[in-house]
Automatic annotation (TrEMBL):
Leader sequence residues: none
Organism: Anabas testudineus (Climbing perch)
GO BP field: intracellular protein transport; vesicle-mediated transport
Span of domain Clathrin/coatomer adaptor adaptin-like N-terminal: 49-353
SUPFAM superfamilies associated with the record: ARM repeat (SSF48371)
Name of the protein in its database record: Clathrin/coatomer adaptor adaptin-like N-terminal domain-containing protein
Length: 367
């Protein structure tokens, strides 16, 4: 058996709690899911796989339809159905049972039910309406896991017409004492903004509250919303430029917890997000651009060319410098950075420069 398959089998119990023995480290050799995965890896043709999966689906369908099937057994059946769908085989008969599992099971069973629903259904699926009351109930639960599960599925799939029914509950979670709940609430509101922006216009002030949240994760989540809104209307958020610059200074200076670091680089994806926001705010605006010059200089200085993620930060920094109102000193440093890209032995960096669509603001060419 390949190392990848072995690692998959080892990881599944802890992820999905399938083993009957708590703390078990390996997927039992008698597990039906384990047998299915092993059986598929031993096949030599697509035709054999189709025959095996079809037999598996027939077996799953018989069991989920049986009145004697317990919720614990239903959880294991849903995981097997998920695996079959991941391989490209339809298991639509299991969709309604996934919803029932999310509605009626224990916390661990609900977890698998919610996971199956989020993978099986889309926002326009008619069965999703059956989950609305369950989401409403779980959002009001005192169990943090249930609240997290409900917010997760809301941020992934939820009927647009039902957003007004749960919006007050999601909005309320922005003040929750647990940062993971606040973060998931922000992501849910971001989803609402994408699919129904008119329905969240009245709570834009709550987005500012999230931007100033004491937890860096919540603040980071709020940047998704701001990037979207600033792309649509940069003029409406010029007053937040200083806030974004301050956040970027703190990130570049390593003020965030070590958990946000990647290969010793302080919160690189957060830096990239902030640089994109600043480039939108500073475009064709000298006074706003002047607020950014110092932190952009610092970003270029600290992002040494030694890792792919720092290349990404440098690239975004250069794009930002060439987008906002020009400053000669920064343009020279950005041009030097581009030169390093061109002279680099890494082919991808050469392509990065060759296919960039940004022009020098002074000579209007790809200098």
């Amino acid at each position: 058996m390949s190392d990848v398959v072995e690692k998959t089998l080892t990881a599944l119990p802890s992820l999905l709690s399938l083993d009957s023995q708590p703390g078990s480290a390996k997927l039992s050799s008698t597990s039906k899911l384990g047998n299915l995965i092993r059986g598929i890896t031993e096949l030599t043709s697509k035709h054999e796989e189709e025959k095996l999966i079809q037999r598996e689906l027939v077996s799953i369908k018989e069991q989920v339809s049986s009145p004697n099937t317990s919720m614990r057994q239903m959880k294991e059946l849903m995981v097997r159905a998920i695996y079959c769908e991941m391989l490209g085989y339809e298991a639509s008969f299991s969709y309604i049972h996934a919803i029932k599992l999310a509605q009626q099971g224990t916390v661990l069973e609900k977890r698998v039910g919610y996971l199956a629903v989020s993978l099986f259904l889309n926002e326009s699926h008619e069965l999703l309406l059956l989950l609305v009351n369950t989401v409403l109930k779980d959002l009001q639960s005192t169990n943090l896991i249930e609240v997290c599960m409900a917010l997760t599925v809301v941020s992934q799939i939820f009927p647009r017409d039902m957003i007004p029914a749960i919006l007050p509950l999601v909005e309320e979670k922005l003040n929750h004492p647990k940062e993971i709940i606040r973060r998931k609430a922000v992501l849910a509101l971001y989803k609402f903004y994408l699919i129904a922006p008119n329905q969240v216009q009245h709570i834009h002030n709550k987005f500012r509250q999230a931007l100033c949240d004491r937890d860096p994760g919540v603040m980071t989540a709020s940047l998704h919303i701001y990037l979207q809104m600033i792309q649509e209307n940069p003029e409406g958020y010029k007053d937040l430029t200083s806030s974004f610059v301050t956040i970027l200074k703190q990130v570049v200076g390593g003020k965030l917890p070590m958990d946000f670091n990647y290969h010793s680089i302080p919160a690189p994806w957060l830096q990239i997000q902030l640089l994109r926001i600043l480039s939108l705010l500073g475009k064709n605006d000298q006074s706003t651009s002047e607020i950014m010059y110092e932190v952009l200089d610092e970003s270029l200085r600290r992002a040494e060319m030694n890792h792919n993620i720092t290349y990404a930060i440098l690239y975004e920094s250069v794009k930002c410098i060439y987008t906002i109102h020009p400053k000669s000193g920064l343009l020279e440093k950005a041009a030097k950075c581009i030169g390093n890209f061109v002279l680099s032995p890494k082919i991808n960096l050469k392509y990065l420069v060759a296919f960039s669509d940004h022009q020098c603001p002074e000579c209007h060419s790809h200098c």
